[in-house]
Specification:
It contains eight helices and twelve strands. By secondary structure, the chain is an alpha+beta fold. It folds into two domains: 100 residues, Phosphorylase Kinase, domain 1, CATH 3.30.200; 174 residues, Aminoglycoside 3'-phosphotransferase, Chain: A, domain 2. The strands form four sheets. A five-stranded antiparallel β-sheet has the order 1-2-3-5-4. The protein has a three-stranded antiparallel β-sheet with strand order 6-10-11, with no helix packed on it. Strands 7-8 form a two-stranded antiparallel sheet. A hairpin with a 2-residue loop joins strand 7 and strand 8. Helix 3 packs parallel to helix 7 and helix 4 runs parallel beside helix 8. It is globular. It starts with a strand and ends with a helix.
Length: 286
Amino acid sequence: MVVIPRSDACRHQGYLSLIPRHFVLDKTAKVSALLSDGTPKQYFLKCATGPSARTICEGEFHSATAISSLVPGFTPQPLGWGTYLQDDKESTKVFFLLSSFHEMDLSTPPSPTEFISRLVHLHKTSTSPTGKFGFPCPTVCGKLQRTVTWQNSWTTSFTHLLEDVIRYDNETNGPRPDYDAACRQLIDQVIPRLLGALGDVTPTFIHGDLWENNVGIDRHTGKVIVFDAGCVYAHNEMEFGTWRCSWATHFASEPEYMLLYKERIKPSDRWRSGTIGTGCTVSILT
């Protein structure tokens, strides 16, 4: 088996062992292999080290597994995750995720009809195994490991996610008294009123990091594919928090995406307030 950077992958085939060296937070590679019967096969490999490495790989594996079971073909098929070599130190272990490889167009906006149809199917066919908000294992949004323990209340579940973001921001940029006071007010006063007014909320399985750079078009099939999922059972409207951010492109500028979604899944009476609230977690993170 040969593992080489994507830019060189097309020039090599064969068998070779892989010893990873000096990986940053996560690196990706195209794996070209020859099966025992001589059939060529390609895989996608992601490797990660550091405090969130295990969560990056394990969380995405279980997220992609769940997506694949609900909407087959909507995400690369996950094949396995684990660690390279034996290392007793969690901080220096190299974790990996292996999945099917897809040559993707990452610049062309997906067909609104196809993309929203599959996303709606994902949201409508999902059922929380516990009836609660959360996920069976931790997941990430970018570099941030999120608290997704099972909770009865969406307000409580979202508050944990928001506190994770605020904590990460303080660890990265240092504490700021005025900022911390504003965040405390947001958590104690704004979020309970904003999300509590939504009433009964049914947990919905969401991708969790659905923005333009995590959506592609398979160059061979033309199908829309999503990846880098950090799933959680949440309010379905949390899926669109990233679409309100300043760096959003066609999901924000092309109204057809959201109009099609709202035609298929009726928005709450407080849709705008809800997406603003859930979008603040991503805005703080970026």
